[in-house]
Amino acid sequence: MSSQKYPTRKLGGEDVSAIGLGCMGMSFAYTSFGGYDDKASAETEFLKTARELGVKIVAYSPLGRGFLTGTIQSRDDLDPSDNRINHPRFAEGHFQENLKLVNTLSEVASKKGCTPSQLALAWVLAQGDDFLPIPGTKRVKYLLENAEATNIKLSKEEEANIRKAIDSVGGTKGERYPAAMMAKCFGDSPEQ
Q: For residue 99, what are the CA distances in angstroms to 39, 90, 150, 158, 166?
């Protein structure tokens, strides 16, 4: 393995590796079912630029930090020391609203004959061959379950129905990360 370091730039005094349009490069945090729309935004411009450059999109945390598995039905399901408690999508004001989306998608998964996790991953994979979901897990059982998502094919109609389900509850509520982390997303730095 090469010890060569990938080029970085400064953003807010910290080294970052290529997270904005002007710094196109190594990674992109994209959460599945995150209020995706076709209107221009930093995220959709990023996707357009990545595709123009032939850069793959790494779908980080495509299960919404476990939310989209359908197993977290209450904030009480999380250990008090669990860092997700600090994430806006798990916050008191947003949790119940986001749970509506999870439950709606769980119903779609049930009709499809798969788990909510598999549906979420199949949806990410359906966005194009340039999307690479990287779900995290601590258990082999879930690794095998997640891998089965590659065998689930969504028709254009099913994709449209999933988008309608997302729209029916108004998409996700709350930012992806706490404010300090969000400030580092989709940023560019001046050329050095």
A: 25, 9, 25, 21, 12
136 φ, ψ (degrees, to nearest 5): -95, 150
Contact 106, 116 (CB under 8 A): yes
Helix/strand/coil (H, E, C) string of 83-141? HHHHCHHHCHHHHHHHHHHHHHHHHHHHHHCCCHHHHHHHHHHHCCCCEEEECCCCCHH
Q: 16-182 architecture in CATH?
A: Alpha-Beta Barrel (3.20)
**Distance (Å, rounded) from C-alpha 161 to C-alpha 76?**
31
Of 58, 69, 70, the closest CA to residue 31 belongs to: 58
The whole model's pTM is what? Answer: 0.74
pLDDT along the chain (192 residues), means of 10: 40 42 40 39 73 87 91 94 92 91 91 95 93 92 95 92 85 85 70 60
Q: Where are the domains of the chain?
A: 16-182
